[in-house]
Amino acid sequence: MPYPTPYECAKEFVAHTGRNIFITGKAGTGKTTFLHQFRAETTKQIAVVAPTGVAAVNAGGATIHSFFQLPFTPFTPTPAGRESLITRMRMNSSRRRVIRELEVLVIDEVSMVRADLLDAMDTVLRSVRHRGSEPFGGVQVVFIGDMYQLSPVVKADEWRILSDYYRGIYFFHSHVIQEHPPVYVEFDKIFRQSDNLFIDVLNQVRNDSLSPEGFNLLQSRYDPHFNPLPEENYITLTTHNFSADTINSAELEKINTTAHQFNAVVKGEFPENAFPVDRVLTLKEGAKVMFVKNDMEVPRRYFNGKIGTVTRIMEESVTVLCPGDTDEITVSPVIWENIRYTTHPETNMVEEEIIGTYKQVPLRLAWAITIHKSQGLTFDKAIIDAGKAFSPGQVYVALSRCRSLQSLVLKSPINRYSIEVNEQVVRFSSAKPSEDRVAEELQLAKEQFKMNLLMQLYNFDPLLQTARSWHFDTKENESSFSEGTVPFVSEICNQLTELEEVAGKFRMQLQHITGQTPINKTFFAERLRASSSYFTGKIETVLRTLRESAATTDNKANAQEYDEAITSLFSAAALKAHLISATADNFSVESYYKARSQFRQPSFSLTSYSRDSTGTQLKSIHPELLNELVQLRNRISKEENLPVYIVASVKTLVQMADCLPETEKELLKIHGFGKVKAKRFGAQFLEIIHNYINIRN
Q1: Do the domain assignments include residue 264?
Q2: Domain encompassing residue 361
Q3: Gap between the Cα atoms of 37 and 40, Å rounded
Q4: What secondary structure does DSSP assign to 430-463, as a single string?
Q5: 487 and 414, same structural domain?
Q6: pLDDT tens column, 325-358
Q7: Whole-prediction pTM
Q8: In Å, how far are 52, 290, 291, 341, 415 from 266, measured between CA atoms?
Q9: 236 and 272 share a domain?
């Protein structure tokens, strides 16, 4: 039986297991294509992050630091370091919801991710998701990148701090990876080059094993005086920005045509370090340019990295003719998006929210470009000036941008130091498992994934931890809340504690049943059906109790914290009830994700902020009605921009809930209601009371 290809293996791992996976491969093996395809097809809750702004924009994701709200200082993987990170973290509730709902995190260009940064991400995920014993808080992590390409950057003073905790600076030196290594899958089919001799030389450079024959072959392409004709469309790859800028400016100056400037339009949040092209782009007819974005039209006219010459410039467009093309390409400004991840208020699904855009002509001057910016691109012809390469992988990145050996010229000679590969990378890569081992691990991971999903479904500890955190915060600010608030939250904690105790025993039963060979599928299905009724009933009790919250406080910050906590808990509990009920008759990975996509959150609106709250106890013989009256009062206050006490005081609300006035005449007997207020707001309160009485009758 043939083993699946590495590409097929990776697809199965990310789609049908929960295992962390490291997807690597030489330049041009389709790693970026895999990312885009997985992102388009997956039913899992996914976020994509990258270490730099440009890499994040290219991957269609966010930077690691912005997504996790991390500082740029070194992270020390100690109890004190973790506590300091969590204490200093200022993460809003919407970001916390995204992280709690997350199922897959893709880290692109992982070769540039430092070990301490990955441990910091692990710390945040465990803390926010209340799953401290699980790596990455139970999120499946997909690492994508080639360790032989660009490496992490660490300053000498930073390494003096970090060297006490890490043996190296690469992501695989992180504590979380040392303790929980991912599956290693390497793509081996090269799509960029077809010249076997050149592919062999590239492999030698990549592995720091350049033979004398390979060295001589590269040196045969050395020509320091090479000066191509303009129509040959060579691009120079340099190690430093100033070299590329100098070349481009000098060549543009030589052209005796009118200069035109295109100014980028930046809207919303779009950090400067993520700008994909120059904010002020200066072009001339005759300038050599490179497209920096894939064409969205069909058929595709251009791609990221295609080179041509400007033939005409209009006010809002630029026309380019590329070698080998019979038709010119006219391109206008296009939009890049800066996104952040949010959760949909009804479905709790992780979604992308556009928070900023960058609109500019998708071109840059292409006489020269840095090797760093060339990563991921393909060139038909290139002059490589890598004699001043300053980090491992730079020379390999530069050489592997080219389609063939004949399409490149070396401006400076290749020296042994510049192709040196970090020994730690070599050792890590040598641990690549065999095909049969990967196939065997895939089968086991699939079985474990189904079982893990089931166990997570009947695990109420994350809900309990969320409730306990809510209780701690409320208790700490007890004096600002109305009497009875802390006991109310305590009751929620008690209900969830009881639920988790029963669920823990049920999980042990499930493990026992599934541990039998063969599994008694009939008995297994019966237990799930029976448990579904019990657990959904208990969860509904929790949901009803949450709806009865009558807490008020005159402290805006405490109110916001309280409202966010109770809403988050309600959402998570409602989702769990939905999933348990929907999968009771036929639990499978497919039925789980189908149910997940169909979830719609029940309505739940609560505002605990009350500017006239004095800690007065909010109690009534009709607590559910009182809660509805409080919510109506707060809504009117917000809509009319009035202090809440003008609409209805606490005493007024309690009297209405207890006395159940049904007419305006009866309403006028309630404390605080005069003729003006009754005429202005009375009908809305009476409607709530009428509905409540009708339901009870």
Answers
A1: yes
A2: 196-422
A3: 5
A4: TTPPPHHHHHHHHHHHHHHHHHHHHHHHT--HHH
A5: no
A6: 889 999 999 999 888 777 777 776 667 788 899 9
A7: 0.69
A8: 19, 21, 20, 20, 43
A9: yes
